[in-house]
Amino acid sequence: MIRTTLAAGVRHAPSLPQSSISFGGSVARHSSSSSSSSSVFSVLKSLVSLNSSISYSPCSVKNSTSSPMIVSEVASPSTAPETAKAKPHIINGCFVNPWPSAGEGNVKFTELLWSRFTREWRKVDVSPKMMPTVTPDFSAPISDPSNIRATWLGHATYYVEMPTGLRVLFDPLLGNKCVPRWAPGFNRISPPPCKISDIPAVDLVVISHYHYDHLDEYSIDLIRKHFPEAHYFVPLGIKGWFTKKGIHDVTELDWWEERDISVNGVTSTISCLPSQHGGNRSISDHGMSLWSSWSITSKGKVYFAGDTGYRHVPKLPADQDDYAIEMPHCPAFEEIGEHRGPFDLALIPIGAYSPRWIMSKAHCNPLDSVNLFQDVMAKRALAMHFGTWILTDEPVLEPVEKLREALRRKGLPETGLFDAIQIGQAVEVPVETVN
């Protein structure tokens, strides 16, 4: 089974009726109807696991590394698709999405402006109590040292503890804003579950791309202060941002490149893998840095999807199912499943998808996310990229409802396979893959 952690302290969490989320082969009982409710309150009941049939254990971290980390110049050889050799994602020195599924280029700023200043952009209701946050307890031991434990810290930030003791922090963002500090708006709608200094140890910091909501200067400065021995892995074109800050333990990789990492005599492997997105930090640097997903192999296998789209769809009537139309989907995820899968755990975005005709080239909706989950051959998945900032116009917890709908549509269990958890909650996943 998968064990889920609820810490003792809960911030802004309303009193909820008893319900449960099963993280095993069977679906646990719910006191409410199993059908997807449109009310925010019913969605929250599915986010919070309070049934005594589920085992709970606080997060733990093993002692800090006692020997220097060694990063190989090259990794043990792994397979890659034949198309990767030609590097179709690099054209005239610029990075592109090389698939028809990405449509024409990146999300256009003019499209966003047009949508925001017309009636097409919906007003999103926000309440501080809408997305409850639990405080991680990083002091108690993991229940089974052979498990992988993943703690969601909001948006795309996950803290992952591998069975070897390797500790990985993905796309850290624990500040209040997901835009430049001088820019108005875009404040968190729920408080950070902890501070960077609350995390006991970090070996690797893994960045998916250059956007402000995934590469946060405030958080990186704090990581540098509290974890000076951490090593950073980034896609091509981003290393210079770190070196200008005086951070030199940085490895920059292209898609399908990987490195072996040795800590205390234990070797792990990290792979930089494709995603369908973009990598700019302003309106003038499109294509100057790469975007990516990542995998970690360390007596268990984790896939981090980063920020990604799956299939670009045209503008359609609001009530039309875009999956009723044949549109190409991104082939990279099936290739990742074939050449790096299967995975014990995948961390997959489910939010920031509306208006669909604008955002689909760069962001998954929940049905895209479930298809991606199946493509990469993951045993379990946890959701991310929702409930932390208002980036697009879908209601805050709509992605959770639609994730359930997508799982039902695919004939998959609504809980225990691909789950949306609370910010600050930790989940333990047993290792099933052989690596």
TrEMBL record:
It holds the Pfam family Lactamase_B_2. GO terms for molecular function: N-acylphosphatidylethanolamine-specific phospholipase D activity; zinc ion binding. An N-acyl-1,2-diacyl-sn-glycero-3-phosphoethanolamine binds at Y212, H363. This is Beta-lactamase superfamily domain-containing protein. It comes from Lipomyces tetrasporus. InterPro entries: Metallo-B-lactamas, NAPE-PLD, RibonucZ/Hydroxyglut_hydro. Residues 167-386 form the Metallo-beta-lactamase domain. It comes from the Eukaryota.
